[in-house]
Amino acid sequence: MKPRGRHFFANPGPTNIPDSVMQAVAHATVDFNGPDFMAVYEGCVAGLKRVLRTEQEVFMYTGSGHAAWEATLTNLLSHGDRILVIETGHFSDSWGKMAADLGIVVDTLPADWRKGVDYAALRAALLADTSHALKAIGAVHNETSTGMTLDLARIRALLDETGHPALLMADTISSLGSLDFRMDEWGVDAAVGGSQKGLMLPVGFSFTGVSAKAMRAHHGSTLPKHYFSWTTMLGRKHRSFIGTVPIALFYGLQESLRLIEEEGLGNVLARHHRLAEATRRCVRHWAGNNGPQLYGLEPNRLSDSVTSILMPDGHDAEALRKRVATMNVALGAGLGRLNGKVFRIGHLGDLNEPMLLGTLAATEIGLRLEGVPHTPGGVDAAMGYLADTAG
User: CA-to-CA distance for 119 and 368, rounded, in angstroms?
Assistant: First the structure.
């Protein structure tokens, strides 16, 4: 029997879509070259640049974040080029595999998934590359599988300090609109993003913010591309999209940007941090009695958009997720090597305190029903923090 009541979706992506965005997406078909739509389109591009904090080029595609990954790689690199991917988890591995499949030589800077990269090791790798064979650094700003973040400003500082000319490519798919991100200030050359996370839209629209330095690299790129060709896009009226523009998503984006700017981007980020910290306090409480614990071991690297939770030995995260699903609550699964070992709670996008507390309460009930050791009262710890920090 299907559970009654409203579904609580706490997966870190796609995320909850505000009602007003869903209504905006339900828009009649219009001429995407007509003046009315062009006004909406241009306003959305300007708003997206404000969220990216860039004044540079943005290219857009019909496709998920993986499409933007491929577009970025093929527009910036050539067959046989070498890149360094910083290991962060499942998604850094996936990005590296995609690059290798495209004929790019991929070096991986290894890291403990629970602790994150050793920045001294990154500095050493840059200094060791005296011939500047590395054309780009691939960095996942927010690794959704582990609930850990990378310090992009620090990576840029290391590139500058060592005098290394590699492009800084950043995956912002699960960080944009949820964590602080500053493309121009941090010297990010290619910022990959998608619609279905902090922008609170349906899946199907992705983009790349591109620096002037990256555009110069693009003109020398020889990897095959057609639908994703930035050069071809520049010649089109929309400066993006080879073919049909996904009209409905832009009416949704217009509304999403309105909601973000009405709340204020700074307030949006503060809300994400507050809800994330409430989640972490709940999990730290559960961790007593050899219970579930935060997967990430470095407090200053924990994500404000998703929390990854490690189950005690001998207990299956998938069994817990299935139990919680009977209460109409969807938790995120462990990805790749973490499948069955962790579950994830997404706390990004269109989210408030009651929605989060409902998710945490259902999860605590699930722990009890599944016989998972833990210290009860984690939800109380979250409520206490939220009460103490209420505006």
Answer: 40
